[in-house]
Amino acid sequence: MRITGGRARGIPLRVPTKGDVRPATDYIREAVFNSLAAWIPGAVVLDLFSGTGAYALEALSRGAAQATSIDLKTASELAANAAAVAKSMGVEKLPLQIITGDALQAGLVSGPFNLVFADPPWGLWEKHADVIVHNAVSYVGNSADATVVLEAPGGFVVPVPAGWKLRKVIGKGKGQPAASVFVPLR
């Protein structure tokens, strides 16, 4: 697993060996970021269920202004990954806030964010899909230029949040991860 683009391209990321961490594949992240290339520079990013921090770190590598990562258990691995990315980018510290908390709970950090990623453990989709979707869009506030990307197992239909529309689904096919990209109705 590595950063797929930007200033830290190619930097490997540590993956936690314990817990329910299933990192976003390089393929899906690269496809998502290539699709969102125009929205990344200057973005304020939130990475829910961040695990390795791959979405937040990829965004920072590609020019996001700042990022916040929330995960229940992976703060030490995420901090190590952030240090490796910072070093490769020639900076002492990334504009990254790491919060240890349950991303199923709302209000863990203040926004608004204009780019939100959520890649929860897949088992949570069956039990908590509405909560995951609601929490992800709640961090956007009233931003008309926001984008929310929700990664789920292939074949799982992510519910469309009220006031939002599905812009596209990025993925290889059934059984493989898919990223649903949502934008506000205008």
How would you summarize this macromolecular structure in one to three sentences?
With 186 residues, the protein is an alpha/beta fold. The protein has helices spanning 26-35, 54-61, 75-89, 122-138, and strands at 44-48, 66-71, 96-100, 115-118, 147-152, 164-171, 178-184. It is built from 4 helices and 7 strands; from the N terminus they run H-E-H-E-H-E-E-H-E-E-E.
What report would you give on this structure?
- This protein is of the alpha/beta class and 186 residues long.
- α3 (75-89) links the parallel β2 and β3 (96-100).
- A seven-stranded mixed sheet has the order 3-2-1-4-5-7-6, sandwiched between helices.
- It has a single domain (26-184), classed as Vaccinia Virus protein VP39 (Rossmann fold).
- The protein contains four helices and seven strands, in the order αβαβαββαβββ.
- It is 27% helix and 22% strand.
- The relative contact order is 0.17.
- The protein is globular.
- The mean pLDDT is 89.
List keywords for this structure.
alpha/beta; 186 residues; globular; seven-stranded mixed sheet; Rossmann fold
Low-pLDDT ranges: none
- Strand order, sheet with most strands: 3-2-1-4-5-7-6
When the domains are counted, the total is 1
Instruction: Give me the secondary-structure category.
Output: alpha/beta
| Strand count | 7
Shape: globular
> What portion of residues is helical?
25-40%
Q: Into which percentage range does the β-strand content fall?
A: 15-25%
CATH class: Alpha Beta
CATH superfamily: Vaccinia Virus protein VP39
Largest sheet: 7 strands, mixed
Rg, Cα atoms, Å: 15 Å
Average pLDDT, all residues: 89
Distance between the termini: 37 Å
Instruction: Give the CATH topology.
Output: Rossmann fold
Element order: H for helix, E for strand:
HEHEHEEHEEE
**Known CATH architecture:** 3-Layer(aba) Sandwich
